[in-house]
Write the structure tokens for this entry.
Amino acid sequence: MANDEAALTELLTDVLALAAGREVLWATDLNRGGAALLIGVLEARHQTLVYIPGRSVYHASRTYRGDGKTDAKDAAIIADQARMRRDLQPIRSGDQISTDLRLLISRRTDLVCDRTRAINRLCAVLLEYFPALEAAFDYAMLKAAVVLLTKYTTPAGIRRVGESRIAAWLRNQGCYNAKTIASRAVAAAHAQHTTVQAQEVGADLVAALARTVLDLHKQMAEVEKQIEARFREHQHAQILLSMPGFGTLLASEFLAATGGDMTAYDSAARLAGVAGLAPVPRDSGRISGNFHRPKRYDRQLLNAFYLAAQSAARYCPQSRTYYQRKRSEGKNHKQAVLSLARRRLNVLWAMLRDGTPYQQPAAMAA
């Protein structure tokens, strides 16, 4: 079927006519992207749609006859799995704000990856003809150093202009620590008096890449403003921000991953299983109590809980106490943070269930 509303509506009408009033269960191996129109059409007609991950379809196909792979065979396997299994979850579209946040966060992730790629390429080109300047700064952390490269890219050029004029130019560009940046750049220029063959073309490439990095940085700032503005309109915004460790970005990632609807998770344990924070047993025969990290989970949701717990372990007294206790029990840093994230998930789930912001234990006692 073509991914077209008219074709999908015609398919839906034919299937309902064939069912003759009996219950119809739809199944798909995609829960977003190209299947968004299909999901919207089925939701508009109040049809039940379950999601079977492509990985599950792949492993299930081994239990069916033949080694061939076709779209028709995959569709038959998906239908058969949906008919037999009772553990499949229905697809629930998130609220409008959570959907917007998911798209904005995906866009920010793309920009972060593009900026990292541009910075790595900039450093690689700069290393070919001016290694002293490449080693002088961390260009991923110092925006002023990237601004410097949009105009001053060669040892001779930096020596000719001098420290005071470079510092004044950087201040005019709105850079902080202009004098320090200029001093380190001039020191790097005095450390190299040899002109490398790659300098002529490399200098132009470095300047162009520096402008690209700054442009990507500007786009990231604009997207982050959009994320914050959209996030603060959500009904759970104040509750999420009251939880130590959760800022605007991590809370937005949480809403994007969950759809902003906690009714999809009947318990904190279910949410922990989706987030990859619930250990999975691997018992056999006389061996019991053998747990390991899960392999199937929502990585975006785990990332939000892990980073929030790691931040809370530094700045929240209660979280820091729990983290130190786990370390004293012999757990390494990663294990202790995951354990803390699991405990905090219980608290956050109860907060969202009851609509209550986080309260410090001392305040609760008072």
Remarks:
- The chain has a mean pLDDT of 91.
- The longest strand covers residues 25-28.
